[in-house]
Amino acid sequence: MPDVKVTEIPAVSDMGVAIEGSAHWWPNEMGEAVLPEFDPYHQQLYYIEIFNRGTTPFEYSVRVGEPWIKVNSMKGKISTEERLWVNIDWKKAPKGKHRAPITVDGPNDLRIVIYAAINNPVSPKRGEEIRFVESNGYVSIEAENYARVVNTHPITWQKIPDLGRTQSAMTPFPVTAATQTPQGDSPRMEYRVHLFVKGEVTVKAYLSPTLNFHNNQGLRYGISFDNEPPQIINMHSGKTFQDWEESVRNNVTVEVSKHTIAEPGKHVLKFWVVDPGVVLQKLVIETGKVRPSYLGPPESHNGSVKTKKK
Predict the structure, then answer these.
(1) End-to-end Cα spacing for the chain
(2) Of the candidates 63, 90, 120, which is a domain's last residue?
(3) Largest CA distance in the chain
(4) Secondary structure of 103-151 as H, E, C letters
(5) pTM for this structure?
(6) Does residue 301 lie in a domain region?
(7) Among candidates 288, 306, 309, 284, which has minimal Cα distance to 297?
(8) What does each C-alpha distance from 49 to 20, 34, 127, 206 come to in angstroms?
(9) Which has the closest alpha carbon to 303: 49, 132, 153, 142?
(10) I need a labelling partner for 211 at 20 to 30 A (CA). Which of 43, 111, 170, 285 fits?
(11) 65 part of a folded domain
(12) What is the domain range of residue 171?
């Protein structure tokens, strides 16, 4: 048995601060403490956690650098820990990208500065756009929340409730249908998005693990933005038995494609039928560095409802 060590907590007041979106804590960390970006579409609520590294309680106070930053508690006493919640008063927030400090004062003249970064674009206005909006470097979409679905006899898209890890899943039926060439009005699902970037983006398709029951080259789907030619992605190409075991264990396999966005603004992401048997759980468009997570990023803001079928 290895040696057992006991950590003695000092009988003093000593403040530590952690923030949402970071595995670090301050003042132990030398870099800046910056909360994830706020935007008016998602109207996020992020936390700052103040904790006591000693056993003697201490008092803290909070100061904000701008009147549009709101913190639910501006002062208090910490025995063990307390979580403060930060949000933005969007009626007062200026347009554009800005960053402002939140200062936490604690014992022994210790002062920790956390920065709140906001992105408050002039367009689109909240509520006027029926689309998913980029935030914090991604757009995340549950498969069933399409803007438009195209069915072409005999193929129809069907929802499978509760099959996905985070919501439900969509798949084309019948599974005996012939292979499709993604073009024109061939079967697909369309997702309307608003991006603030241009250039290369990554699309990750979260698929249910499916055996290659056709015993051919593998099950394929098409993926494209707007009017670009669809890329054909094979979910079985180059996969090993170990890959299959891992996808079954996690109930998902993630396929990746790269795309070039010419201009920021409105775009349509299209998911095309090639081989029946592909089951889509969610789509994630990565426009920047996305923090790792087991289930993938939560669904982005979307004010849409289902539109017409064809």
Answers:
(1) 67
(2) 120
(3) 74
(4) EEECHHHCEEEEEEEEEECCCCCCCCCCCEECECCEEEEECCCCCEEEC
(5) 0.89
(6) no
(7) 284
(8) 8, 13, 32, 33
(9) 132
(10) 285
(11) yes
(12) 132-286
Answer whether residue 296 is part of any domain: no
Q: What is the mean pLDDT of each run of 10 residues along the chain (310 residues)?
A: 89 95 95 96 96 96 98 96 97 96 97 97 76 94 96 96 94 94 96 95 97 87 97 95 94 97 96 97 96 93 56
Q: Which residues contact 11 (CB under 8 A, 6 or more apart)?
A: 54, 55, 56
Q: Which residues of 94-126 are buried (b: 16+ CB within 10 A; e: fewer)?
A: eeeeeebebebebbeebebebebebbbbeebee
DSSP state, 183? -
Looking at the structure, do residues 275 and 194 belong to the same domain, yes or no? Answer: yes
Residue 252 exposure: Cα atoms within 13 Å on the Cβ side: 20
Residues 185 and 268 in one domain: yes
Do 100 and 32 lie in one domain? The reply is yes
Distances (CA, A) of 1 to 5, 85, 305: 12, 43, 60
What CATH number is attached to the domain comprising 45?
Answer: 2.60.40.10
Number of domains in the chain: 2
Residue 243 has φ and ψ, to the nearest 5°, of -60, -40
Residues in the chain: 310
